[in-house]
Fold:
Amino acid sequence: MEKKFKLDPPKILVLGFATLILIGAILLTMPISTVDGQGLSFLNALFTATSATCVTGLVVVDTGTTFTMFGQWVILSLIQIGGLGFMTIATLFALLLGKKISLKERILLQESLNNLSMDGIVRLAKRILIFTAVIEILGAMLLAIRFSFDMPLKKAIYYGIFHSISNFNNAGFDLMGEFRSLTGYVEDPTISLTVCALITLGGIGFIVMNELFEYRKTKRLSLHTKVVLVSSSILVAVGTILILLLEFSNDKTLQPLSFTGKILASLFQSITPRTAGANTLNIPDLTQSTLLLIIFLMFIGASPGSTGSGIKTTTFTTLIGAVWSQIRGKEDVILFRQRIEYETIYKALTVTVSALFLVLTVTMFLTITEPGKDFLMILFEATSAFGTVGLSMGLTPELSPIGRCIIIFTMFAGRVGPLTIAFAVTMRRKPDAFRYPKGKIMIG
Structure:
């Protein structure tokens, strides 16, 4: 009897993202997608589609001046589906058609949302869609009102919608032209704070948003939510202070700005490495120390179950907790008076080491394919691709064809997760039939 071919959730997620990217790439090669009426080359279209679907924001061509309205809507659709996850979008259509969500689809939703339990997963998916609609509409309205002072109302509304969706999904695509991002609004509190709010809400994760929404009724927060909120707040606060100090006297960045402008710019540049990609300061003009800080923040990224990537704030916090426990000679890792299981610590270590290995390997290959380029620039680009951030020092448009293929793979791996890819291409794990005797090695 032939064995039935089955796809487990990780394989379906990987294939789903790959299919979505391919469809997007084909659409962007069509003449109707570009202003010149010739369409993009397949490699550039594949790069753009991957960047949009993986909500990265790295671009080889300028979004605002290269694409027609059709091409921009293709990119925006890829951003929305990629940010929420295609399973969430599929659930929306199933619910609209009155279809019952099967057990397999619930399992896929759980895997897609990185949720710990399958209980109430469909209700969570509904909430996610509502949260997304409300936040993006409010963001679009605020941005459109501000943009209306600088451009015709119709264009302002369109810009508001595009940038609201792009930044809530932590994509970083913009329509400002000439790769400027939001540098023209560096001292504008409305644009800066609205975009910062969109990025933050998209980056903390839907599970956290749902718990905060229900807090008035439950009066409790899970350990996961507490870790996400505290670690995210600390990273943003420390990042803002350090960027302010490091760039305060830099005449190419903060020095010409008012004190309020300096605070806004520092805050924005601290939040955007959480996988967003928009910027109000010219990235190549930042000092090397600030660039290293941003690389560190990009590597950590957003929180689980969000529109962002990176190793995630919870992973970083778990590792810091493990190190602190070892330094204090404690056996258990305690966070908020709760013990973290060893399985969680091992997973955090595996995710971090896998991510570090990927970033360093990609950096090494790019030093070969992009000779003569500054090492820090290459490391910055590789980390930005892995964290699906989208910040760039200007290397992406100059990448060789092989370099673009490497970054495409890195963005894809960063979005679906190194572990998901590993599980997707290997057999289902089985428990060991026996255990070896304990051994001892010297550490440190």
